[in-house]
């Protein structure tokens, strides 16, 4: 009888853990789902999936960059600017010199967050992003900083 109860509990626990859609998805599917959430401005959902993805792979700069977007634009947490900046810095820490285009995206996000927060220094970040060939940042630098 004990074996039957234990087996039933084990099966039920297994089903409960793995019946959620996000857990059944591969890491790349989680990132794709998160991007869809971000595009639809479903920032809480994106953040939830990205937190799970980062738990699976905590050295992927893309996941940190995406979570920074979700946190900041969704105003998630007590200090979204600080949390998002931390994720941007974490993403940058994993990149190499070859990742110029991606660095441009991250510095562009940082600059835009600084503009929204009136944090100053956004010109420096738009310039860095522009130096990595991010044309939107080059235009923003010309419009806002010159």
Description:
This protein has 146 residues and is an all-alpha fold. The chain folds into two domains: 26-94, Tetratricopeptide repeat domain (Serine Threonine Protein Phosphatase 5, Tetratricopeptide repeat, Alpha Horseshoe), CATH 1.25.40; 95-146, no CATH class. Helix content is 79%, strand content 0%. It has nine helices and no strands. The chain is globular. The model is unreliable at 3-19 (pLDDT under 50).
Summarize the helices and strands and which ones pair or pack.
Blueprint: H1 2-18, H2 21-24, H3 27-39, H4 43-56, H5 61-73, H6 80-94, H7 100-117, H8 122-131, H9 135-145
Essential attributes:
mainly alpha; single chain; disordered N terminus; Serine Threonine Protein Phosphatase 5, Tetratricopeptide repeat; 146 residues; 2 domains
Shape: globular
Number of domains: 2
Q: Report the end-to-end length measured between terminal Cα atoms.
A: 78 Å
Identify the CATH homologous superfamily of the largest domain.
Tetratricopeptide repeat domain
Helices and strands: which structural class? mainly alpha
What pattern of helices and strands is seen along the backbone?
HHHHHHHHH
Low-pLDDT residue intervals, each spanning 5 or more residues: 3-19
Overall number of strands: 0
Strand count, sense and closure of the main sheet? none
Strand content: under 5%
């Amino acid at each position: 009888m004990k074996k039957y109860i234990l087996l039933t509990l084990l099966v039920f626990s297994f089903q409960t853990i793995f019946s959620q859609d996000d857990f059944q998805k591969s890491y790349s599917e989680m990132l794709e789902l998160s991007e869809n959430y971000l595009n639809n401005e479903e920032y809480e959902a994106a953040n939830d999936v990205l937190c799970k993805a980062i738990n699976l792979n905590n050295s992927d700069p893309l996941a940190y960059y995406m979570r920074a977007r979700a946190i900041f634009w969704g105003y998630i947490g007590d200090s979204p600017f600080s949390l998002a900046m931390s994720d941007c810095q974490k993403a940058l820490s994993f990149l190499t010199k070859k990742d110029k285009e991606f660095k441009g995206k991250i510095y562009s996000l940082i600059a835009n967050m600084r503009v929204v927060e009136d944090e100053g220094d956004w010109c420096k970040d738009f310039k860095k992003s522009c130096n990595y060939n991010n044309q939107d940042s080059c235009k923003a630098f010309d419009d806002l900083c010159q």
